[in-house]
């Protein structure tokens, strides 16, 4: 049987789930304490990955809730028969990034196979009123932090051991098309696309690393919920940043989801499924691409 035939049989076998698609792989998922990140962590674990749940620590938030969420996700995975650890910290902290990568490698017995750069939040403002702090915080969280994590994890990806290696950077339609009130977020998420392509070109030829971007549209999370619900993130210096979209702004757009062909928001589980697909053997010959998960929006 030819190598290509064997590969086709292997993929066909995965479609029937005779074994987990990510069996034996170690995956770091940032921002995995809730939302899309948490769903991705659970889904990866179901597919056999050993998951590192990374999320903000108590010193960077007014409540311990976020920290407990990371540990709760890991606990739920372990109690369901999977394998996970929670490593709490702030991706804006260089010391945390170093510790995250080292502890993940220890958890994986010296191996890391998948990195999903998902952590982030929005801090919106119209261009002429946006502060330097708003700008730099969002650019640092969404662009600088993924770069630093990739740089720290490079020794575990630039290896020739025959095992698959995947980088999945999370972007947004704001990064692909721009969005009013999100100059900082749009620039950072556009930058992620360029970062992904660079990783694919630098680490693909010798080491076989695949790198792709998943750009989400309207996914039902705390970032797209009603601002009046009170969700917030706290910056490193203690400033409270409200999350979500004001109800008045949401209603001003006319019929809800009218610009989405499927006429609904996506779920966090659907978003996570897209990340799994990109990281799985089913996308084994896909690298350097941006996969839009939008329900048809912006096509």
TrEMBL record:
Sections of the chain in a coiled coil: none
EC number(s) reported in the record: 1.1.1.100
Catalytic activity annotation: a (3R)-hydroxyacyl-[ACP] + NADP(+) = a 3-oxoacyl-[ACP] + NADPH + H(+)
Domain spans labelled Ketoreductase: 25-206
Enzyme class: oxidoreductase
Database matches in InterPro entries: KR_dom, NAD(P)-bd_dom_sf, SDR, SDR_fam
Key words of the record: NADP
GO molecular function: 3-oxoacyl-[acyl-carrier-protein] reductase (NADPH) activity
NADP among keywords: yes
SUPFAM superfamilies: NAD(P)-binding Rossmann-fold domains
Family: Belongs to the short-chain dehydrogenases/reductases (SDR) family.
Protein name stated in the entry: 3-oxoacyl-[acyl-carrier-protein] reductase
């Amino acid at each position: 049987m030819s190598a290509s035939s064997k590969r086709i049989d292997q993929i066909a076998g995965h479609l029937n789930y005779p074994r987990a698609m990510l069996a034996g792989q170690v995956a770091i998922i940032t921002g995995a304490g809730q939302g899309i990140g948490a769903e991705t962590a659970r889904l990866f674990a179901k597919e056999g990955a050993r998951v590192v749940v990374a999320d903000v620590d108590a010193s960077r938030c007014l409540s311990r809730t976020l920290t407990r969420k990371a540990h709760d996700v890991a606990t739920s995975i372990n109690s369901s028969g999977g394998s996970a650890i929670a490593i709490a910290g702030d991706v804006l902290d260089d010391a945390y990034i170093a510790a995250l990568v080292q502890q993940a490698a220890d958890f994986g017995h010296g191996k890391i196979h998948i990195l999903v750069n998902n952590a982030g939040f929005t801090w919106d403002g119209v261009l002429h009123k946006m502060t330097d702090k708003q700008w730099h915080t969002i650019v640092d969280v969404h662009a600088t932090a993924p770069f630093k994590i990739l740089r720290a994890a490079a020794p575990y990806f630039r290896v020739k051991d025959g095992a698959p290696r995947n980088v999945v950077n999370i972007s947004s339609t704001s990064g692909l098309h721009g969005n009013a009130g999100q100059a900082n977020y749009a620039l950072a998420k556009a930058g992620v696309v360029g970062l992904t392509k660079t990783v694919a070109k630098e680490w693909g030829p010798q080491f076989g690393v695949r790198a792709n971007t998943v750009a989400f549209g309207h996914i039902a999370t705390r970032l797209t919920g009603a601002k009046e619900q009170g969700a917030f993130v706290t910056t490193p210096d203690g400033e409270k940043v409200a999350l979500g979209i004001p109800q008045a702004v949401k209603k001003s757009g006319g019929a809800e989801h009218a610009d989405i062909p499927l006429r609904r928001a996506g779920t966090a589980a659907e978003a996570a499924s897209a990340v799994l697909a990109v990281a799985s053997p089913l996308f084994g010959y896909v690298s350097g691409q941006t996969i839009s998960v939008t329900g048809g929006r912006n096509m």
